[in-house]
Structure formats: structure tokens, C-alpha cells
Amino acid sequence: MGDSVTLQEIAERLGLHVSTVSRVLHGSPDARRRAASARTARRVEELATELGYRPNPHATSLRTRRSRLIGVLFPRLSEVVVATIYEGIEEEATARGFSTFVTNTHDEPATQRERIEMVLARRVDGLIIGDAHLDGAALAGLERSGTPFVLVNRRTEGGHPAVVCDDHLGGRLVAEHFLGLGHRRVGVIAGEPFASTGTDRTAGFAGRYREAGLPLPPEAVRACGFDTAGGRRAATELLRSARRPTALFAVNDSAAIGAMGAARDLGLRVGADLALAGFNDVPVAAELPVPLTSVHSPMKDLGRTALRELLRHLSGGTPAGHRLLPRLMIRASSGAAVGPAIDSRDP
Known about the structure:
Shape: elongated
Radius of gyration: 26 Å
Largest sheet: 6 strands, parallel
Distance between the termini: 64 Å
Strand order of the largest sheet: 2-1-3-4-5-11
Order of helices and strands: HHHHHEHEHEHEEHEHEHEHEEHEE
């Protein structure tokens, strides 16, 4: 019978008022206790199970004024980092009785604003934003709507609650590793300047080199897309420069893989002629022909934590920002002896 079974039918079969059946099946524990004895509640639940009763989510949302639906915005769900964060969001939401849906914005501000409006039109309870730009401009309409939201993976300069990896510390861990290997001439494949992931990782790396008395010249830092093509292009420029670096830090693993291709084309051996490190530690990083040294970001935990903070907001609390700790996974690409991961002490 399934979806065709109604509360009224269950009530008539048991000789109960429909409100009693409704409170037993949909009410809070206190409401259930007030509505019926334990024996009656058990009879209601057993018959509902026998008949295959399932609540109507639309009717439930009308009663509670909650859709129990969370909208999620990301640049591209095809990216493994984004997909892994979304897995964490979805798993945590499901465990807490919420549903999620995701839309791609391709990191284009006009598309971001359009998709936010589209998501709000679906009467979501809240949003998780994974495509924020540092200026936070696309969030203005969302703020005016009053709909709760939390950022994940990226932060803004406006102080919105954000759940991120400690990207600045991750960059420092790579710099400390390179300094320990004796690299004085280094370069950074810095990603997009509008994203905090690129700017914070670059700042952490460059700051540690500055503290060591080796400030990076501007030409040693190249912006690029967060993909293999962008990484390859930036690495080619750096490796063809008069001040060719002996080590490169790419702010994500896709860009680092692109850098591997650039090094190969220029006749350089990664791990011997060139030290290379990436960021995020995607699963393929350890399986490459030359395994990639990379900063491990707790991607799935980012998603879970962001969902929990959004639910805190929905419950009337104040959502908190979090910086989850990274680890440096040392592999052959940086030319060092492979050892245990470097933990997140600030070097």
C-alpha cells in the first residue's frame, strides 16, 4: 500500500483519533507520551509498519515550516576534492534526517548569484557554500534573504562562518620540508587569486621562506587555474625562467600533476632534478609513477563539520568557523627519503 496509506486509515483500524496517530508517528518523544500509552503507541507503530506507511514529506514540511533540504554550491562536482567534501556533507545530512542537492557554478560570479537565487526558490532550510570568492560579493543576496548559510573549503574576507583546512599552516609545512632539504630557490604554482585556498597556502609557504631570510621574488609565484592545464602552464613558465627553481609547491594536486608533465617535457626528473609538492592528498597522489608529496586535507571531515555548523545555525545557535589541521605526506616527488607524515605543529 505504501504511499497510499493515510493516518486516517490507521486511526480507523485501531479505533483511535487521527491526531493521536499523528502524534505517535510524527511527534516528539514528549508528545508521543502525552498522546498515548506505551501499548497504544506500539500498536500504532506495528500497524504502520505492516501497512507500509510512509510520511508525506510535503505535508510534514507544511506543518513544521521546514523542508529539511540543504542546498550546496560548488565550482565543479567533477573535481575529486569537491566530490569528497560533498560526500561528507551528504553523509552527515542523511544521518540527521536532512536531504541535500548540489549545483555547480564554475567559479563565475554571475552564475554564483543565479544559482543562489535558484536554490533559495526551492525553499531550502539553509545553504553550504563551497565556491566563495575572497570578496564575498556573490553572497550579498543570500545575506539579504536571511537564509542561514555556512562556507566550506574557502573563506571570505567578510568574516562569514567558514569550515576550512588550515591552508596557511599547510603551506608552512611544505616550506619547512623544502628548507630542510636545502632548497633556497623555489617557486609556487599559486592557483586562482580570488580563492582563499590558493592565497592562504601561498602566503603560508612564502611567509616561512621570508622568516628564513629567503623572501620569494614576485616572479617566483605564478597564478593559474586549479587544474592540470593551469599547473602545467605555470610550471613551464617557472622552469624556463632564468631563475629556475629547484623545488615547486603547487597549491593543489591537479596543478602538481600538470607540473609533472611540464618537468617531463623539459627533460627534468621529478624527485631528482626537481622537488615537487602538492596539496589535498587526493587518492591518486600516492599511486603516481613518482608518488607525490602532498599536504593531506581532511576533505570529508570538512563537509561533515560544515553540515553540523549549519544545523547549529538552524537550531538558533551561532555557527562557528573551524580550521581543520593538515598533515604533510612525504613521498618520492620531493626527493626526500620517504618517512612518516609531518604533523600540524606550526614550524
